[in-house]
Each structure stands twice: as structure tokens, then as C-alpha cells.
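Slide 14.
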Amino acid sequence: MTDAEVLSVRDLRVSLKTLSGSAVAVRGVSFEVSRGETVGLVGESGCGKTLTALAASGLLPEGATISGGSVHLLGYDVTNSDSKAWRDLLGKHIAFVFQDPMAALNPVRTIGYQLMEAVLAHRNISRSAAWDKALELARRVKLPRAEALLNAYPHQLSGGMAQRVVIAIAIANDPNVLIADEPTTALDVSMQREILKLLKEIQRQTGMAIVIVSHDLAMIAEWTDRVLVMYAGHIVECQTTIDRLARIRHPYSRALLAVRPIRRPRYGPRPKLFEIGGAVPLPGEKFYGCAFAGRCAHEIERCKIDARELRTANQGKIACHLAIEAEAAE
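Slide 15: predicted structure.
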């Protein structure tokens, strides 16, 4: 790791227990995240992005294990840390924002209690001081009527307010890395922007690194510095987003951009929604050549038998024969 890197994942493999044995769901993923950087991890459901994020946070569910590779946090190898060691790290150095805020919050505890609980997990302070810190956090994430809301229960909050509470809990101890799994999925468009603006504002204040997991490549392009596109447990493309994905070349990445719904024009026919045919290979499913072969509109015979590893191309990295050859020809 370099001095700037806070999270480094190398050749990560995650296996799942199934009725027929062990199935590899994440197949050798490598990436790093630096201080103050925002990285997007994008792909369809089942591509392995959430499992990668959970493995990097020590939060893998029962039945899922790291079967290869390593995770380094602030330079320390935490790959095989036990649950106690991860409890010491979670919240203090790395924090996780789950997809469903209502499921992440305790329904029988007040918002104030849950914020205090997060503060006291890593600080030896009085409950009175913890309450003051909870109020400060509520105001920091711009909860309306913050003082009154500390006495409210999760079911009394809107989806956007609940997501702000979950973010407040995550940043309670100023972590170095914040991983957000689909943080805007259940929110309307205007609230999505508010939550993403809030995360970026907190990042500017603290310098923390952010990893956003999403299926929406266009949204990721707007809010991150770099995007990693995942398919079938592999990273198939890595690009900077300084020019809003103008450099995107992998057929799967382009297909993800194409499936985003388009606003209906005032006049004329409704635009046809593009669809990626087929399905993502299942964890443990064996395939030869490119995993996207069979779904790709640009597939050639070579794709079925020869899988292209990530190669530097177009100022990024791409795992595609045609994209790399096209780059070389330019």
C-alpha cells in the first residue's frame, strides 16, 4: 500500500456454502482506495459487488468466507481477523451503510439511543457527553428538528430521514473509509441527490474515502472519481470518471449505460427500454473464455475460449479482446 491508500483489496475470492458444496462468487478482485477518493463499484444483481464490499468490511454473512486474497486496512492485513478484532475496526476505521435503512435500524430503540450507542462503542465518555455528540451528528447530517427527532423511533421517519440517521451512525467515530451499499435505491430522485451531496460534503470535511456500491453506472459516473465495473465476480473495467465515462469501452459497461430508463419526450413515441439478454452466471458456475460471452452483441469466436485479463487501455483497464484491439488500432 502507498501512504495515501486506506483500503487495499488484492486477488480477493469469496466462496459460498451451497447444498452441492462450495461456490466461488468473487473471483480474484483487486482494487485500492485512497484518502479523500470516491470509488464506485457497479454491476447487476448477482455480480459479486455487495459480497466484495461486505468482505472488505468484515461483514460477510454466515455461509460466506474469504477463500483467497487479502484485505489491507490502513496498511494492516485484516483478512483473517476474528469477530472481536472487526468490532474494534468497524465504525472507528471503516463503516458500512446498508441498502435498507429501516432494516438497519433497531425498531424498538429511539434514534438518540442508537446514535449514542454508536458513539459509546469507541469512546470512553459519559452518557451526557454521548447525547450531546448524538445531537451534533443529527445536525451534521441535516436532520430537520434534530433535537426532537432524537426521541423518535425509526417507523416515524421517512426513508430519506432514516438514511440520514444510518449515515450519522456510520460517521459517529470519523472512519477512514465509508462503504455505502446502494444508499439511494429506495429514495426518489431529488432525495437521492440530497443523500449523495451529503456524503460528498462529509467527505470534504473529514477526508474519508468513500466506496459506493450501485447498479446505476450513470449515477456513479456523476458522483465518483473512479468506477470499477463488476461482472460474474470479476472486475471487467476500471476507468476514471473525470469526463463522465467518455472512455468506457467494455461491452458490458456500455450495456449498463444503455439500460438506464430514458425520460419520455413531450411528443413522439415512448423510447424503447434496452434490455441485456440472458443472466449473470451463478456463483460457482464454470465457463470458458469471457463470462459475458453469450450476452454480448459483439461476441466473436475467440471470446468463448479465451478470457482476456484486465489490461491497460484508454487510460484505464479493460478485460475485453475487442476493446483492447480497438484501442491499439487508434
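Speaker note: The mean pLDDT is 91.
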